[in-house]
Amino acid sequence: MEDQTQAFKSGFVAVMGRPNVGKSTLINALLGQKVAAVSPRPQTTRKRQMGILNLAPGAKDDPANAQIVFVDTPGVHRPRHKLGELMNQEAAETLEDSDLILFVADASQPPQEDDQILFDLLSGLRRPAPVILALNKIDLIDADTLQGRKTAFAEGIPRAQIVPISATTGSQLDNLLAEIVDRLPEGLPFFPEEQVTDLYERDIAADLIREAALNLLRDEVPHGIAIRIDQFTERNRHGAYIEATLFVERESHKPIVIGKNGKMLKQIGTAARQEIEAMSGRKVFLRLRVKVRKNWRNDDKILRRFGY
Ligand code: GDP
Ligand code: MG
Fold first, then answer.
1. Which CATH architecture has domain 201-305?
2. Ligand nearest 30 Cα, by number?
3. CA-43 nearest atom, ligand 1
4. Residues 9-61: tens digit of each pLDDT
5. Which end of the chain has less neighbouring CB within 10 Å, N or C?
6. Given the CA of residue 25, which atom of ligand 1 is nearest to it?
7. pLDDT digits (tens, 9 = 90+) for 204-220
8. Ligand 1: residues within 6 Å at CB?
9. Under CATH, what is the fold of the domain 2-183?
């Protein structure tokens, strides 16, 4: 009898795309669990993030036959400060180290200047991995518009396989997964099957605190916040104890983040704690403080300390 078993496939998929196209939403939808920080504001995801998806061929109890390791690359943009430069370098390295590149674009708009920067980055890679272009947000446009967008984006990355999707409605996500698995190399799983993410929990916690702060502060402290996790201790059945510092760039931002009688900081802490508890499935005690660190964006030493 012929052997019907398919070879196991596994690989690293670098997710790239300009801010706000829906990368985090897509990863979360594919993983079915909140792993990356999703926010209506651009650029909340500054760190490399990984989610691991184990795919089985059909029935629910089938053993996995593919493992996709998603790497969420930092945003790429024309560098205006040191942080921008470091992020672009890191992005290029992530792309070159991956087995497949998943370029996420917003189908509701024509290619933007920031997409062009990514096209340039892709064509300049030393080791070009296959590219899938996920044309996201098709729920917002009609069929004719989609056709035009396909043509426009194909000009930017001629070698890409284009897959129209909607991360929020879930439309065509199965198709996207099939196209991804098709292009993965044969190989054993990199991580044990039950492991969904290997992102350090403290990094996720930092992202969730930053997301909570940005959501609550709106435009009052524009992007000038960095989070440092000072302590992350397991207390077994009592959950986890987390201490974190929110760094702001200006003295005048500190009272805004703290709020009257500490009200704002308390709100940020509550929102972040709930997200961290939802993510980790256990109780969390979260303690926040605020400090001023002028020009942290341009300070190499500080950026390294924050892990950029
Ligand atoms: P990222 O910066 O690329 O990670 O983008 P996010 O995942 O944070 O998404 C940015 C915004 O686009 C959020 O408000 C999402 O809800 C929204 N969004 C993401 N995917 C879709 C989609 O398929 N359709 C629509 N209508 N909105 C989407
Ligand atoms: Mg994101």
1. 2-Layer Sandwich (3.30)
2. 1
3. 2
4. 999 999 999 888 998 889 878 876 545 444 433 333 444 555 778 887 765 56
5. N
6. 7
7. 788 889 889 988 987 77
8. 17, 19-25, 38-40, 42, 45, 136-137, 139-140, 166-168
9. Rossmann fold (3.40.50)
